[in-house]
Every structure is written in C-alpha cells, then in structure tokens.
Design a protein that fits this description.
Elements: H1 8-12, E1 23-28, E2 34-39, E3 41-50, E4 54-55, H2 66-76, E5 80-83, E6 86-95, E7 102-103, E8 106-115, H3 118-138, E9 142-151, E10 154-155, H4 161-172, E11 178-181, H5 187-193, E12 198-202, H6 217-236
Parallel strand pairs: 1-12, 2-11
Antiparallel strand pairs: 2-10, 2-12, 3-8, 3-9, 4-7, 5-6, 6-8
Amino acid sequence: MSEEDALAGAKQFDASRLGAEFGYVFDHATPIGEVVTASPTYYRIAADFHGRAAHAGIRPEAGRSAIVAAAGAIAAMPLGRLDEQTTANVGSIRGGAGSTNIVPERCRLLAETRSLDAGRVEAVVSRLVDAIHDGASQAECDVDVTTERLFAGYRTKPGAPVVQAAEAALRACGYEPRRILTGGGSDANALEAAGLPCVNLANGTERNHEPTERVSVAALEGMLDVAFALLDEAAAA
C-alpha cells in the first residue's frame, strides 16, 4: 500500500466503504502489548539549488557551487531529536555532474520534520526553509523550495472504545498493554484523517529500517492471536 511513501496507498482508500466503527494497524516495531495513542504530523521539504557551472581548475571563481549552498544549508539546520516530541532529518542530497573538475551547477536535498505538536512542527519547517535560503544566499545560488504536509498526527483518548478493546484483547492473549507515543507514522494516520478511529499496535518487529530488520515466528503467531481476540472484543464493544 506504499506505506513508506508517506502513506500513499492508505490515502487513496475510501474509508466510507468500511462498516466498522474503528480499526487497527499492526505496524509498530516494538514489543507486542504497546498501543500507540499519539502519532506525529509529518512534513517533507525539497530544495533545488541552482548555481553556475565552471571549470574547477581554470576558472573556479566564475562558478557558483550548488553543493556548497546545500552544505551550508544543512550545517545551519536543527537536526536529530529536537525535543521529546520533535525530530528533523536530511535524508538525501544529490548534486554535481559526476566529475570533480566542474563546479557543480545543480544540487537537490530532501529533508523532513515531524512532531506530536502540530504547532511545533510548523515552526521547525520555517527554520529549515530559512536555513535553505541562507545557504543559497551565502553561496550566491538560487533555490526553489517545496514544503508539503504529507500526513497529520492524531491523539486517541485512553477511554476511547478503540483503545479499550485493544487493551482487553492484549490481556486476553497474555500481554500487558502499555500506551505509548511515537515519532513514526503508519496507515492509522491516513485512516484517522479519513474519519475512521484507528490505533496502531506494536507487532514485535525488531530493528526496523535497519539491514537486520526481522520478526520472529513467535511474534507472528502472537499477533495472529491478538487479531482474533480483537474481533471478539470489537464485537462486544
């Protein structure tokens, strides 16, 4: 469903076709029993730097390096964990013509920021964009910037039926429920935005987004038990 591409698949789904009062997503790489009650708002920022090509060994003074502009922008950005609810990251940078003897005319970077606080994430977006423009200005380059909110965050009250049914199902399967907040998005964000109360449940996956990502047979079997228990609890809710 293109979940890794900013929930593209879930966004296209017509939630009005569902007759359920609420739903679940199994997509949090932490121990079974954790119930995600808050997920962040997420923005992506793209910056295309435009400089001027020149021969790097004969007339570098005539060039304007788009890579230098991007590097200056990144150096000025607030990145990593900014507070308990907010993060920012530069995930991709591409530029140059593949040769070291050319001052690079083009460079593109992709960044993101996300936060459980919608106001805070917008403030970070502004800081990232300011850093991009400052980097371009200092390197005497032009830049085109695009910002896009790719999904909205959500918070679910502990007493909501979707949470209560999940916790009862987990207990019935021998897991002690624990409510958590997360910096990760899931299809639950898209379904919540479409009007379907939805909670993301931890599924026991380990080391997500790493080369050694894995899930045990025991976790798969455990989540199957949880799925059946959810049907029983939802029917009784």
